[in-house]
Specification:
By secondary structure, the protein is mainly α. The chain is built from 8 helices and no strands.
């Protein structure tokens, strides 16, 4: 019961973070309120929805009205602090990175709880963390972060790997969660601050 509660709390916080990142981008594109809220919902629940469908599990946001309400909270946060949130590009990174880290944790844990092996859990962590952002970027006509050269999906996989490695080394579950999240946050920060990225695919000259 305690584990389920913790997973729910992580999912709610991740939902809020991703909702704010989506609504913030929609605000910069001058969407109306309904459109901005819709983008927030898609960003917040998109990855988890795909994960649950692939796991043949009940879709998480259909079990509680809390997720849509939290997205509404994210909407009013952006409306209330729109000048700060829409003018500072670092705010997008902060909310997106937090949502990414927390949703990877939920994706990994839920997959393991359903009896899938770790390699599946790592992929599901990546899907949970990044696919809502893909939907967001497609809907607002932006090149998805997932496909850019800076470290994004790779950060999700690295976080999942750290979760597994900590487990193999005998670390407790909270350590697995913390190290998974820290790995993702550090890699995303390095991509923003130092331009860390994977090699680009280029046509042969």
């Amino acid at each position: 019961m305690m584990q389920e509660t913790l997973l729910f709390i992580i999912e709610v916080i991740g939902t809020l973070a991703f909702a704010v990142s989506g609504i913030r981008l929609a605000a910069k594109k001058h969407f109306d309120w309904f459109g901005a809220y819709t983008i927030g919902v898609v960003t917040a629940i998109g990855g988890g929805t795909i994960r649950d469908l692939l796991l043949d599990a009940p879709v998480f946001w259909m079990s509680s009205w809390m997720y849509l309400a939290v997205t509404g909270l994210g909407f009013f946060t952006v409306v209330s602090f729109r000048k700060v949130l829409t003018s500072d590009s670092k705010s997008l990174f902060m909310f997106d990175a937090i949502g990414l880290a927390l949703f990877v944790i939920t994706g990994v844990q839920k997959s393991l709880a359903f009896g899938f092996p770790m390699w599946v859990a790592m992929v599901m962590g990546m899907i949970t963390g990044s696919f809502g952002g893909i939907m967001r970027d497609v809907l607002i006509n932006e090149e998805p972060l997932f496909f850019r050269k800076d470290i994004y999906a790779t950060a999700c996989l690295a976080g999942g790997f750290m979760y597994w490695l900590t487990s193999v080394c005998g670390g407790e579950e909270w350590m697995q969660q913390v190290l998974c999240a820290v790995t993702i946050l550090v890699l995303r920060w390095g991509a923003l601050r130092y331009g860390w990225h994977l090699p680009e695919m280029k046509e042969k000259n």
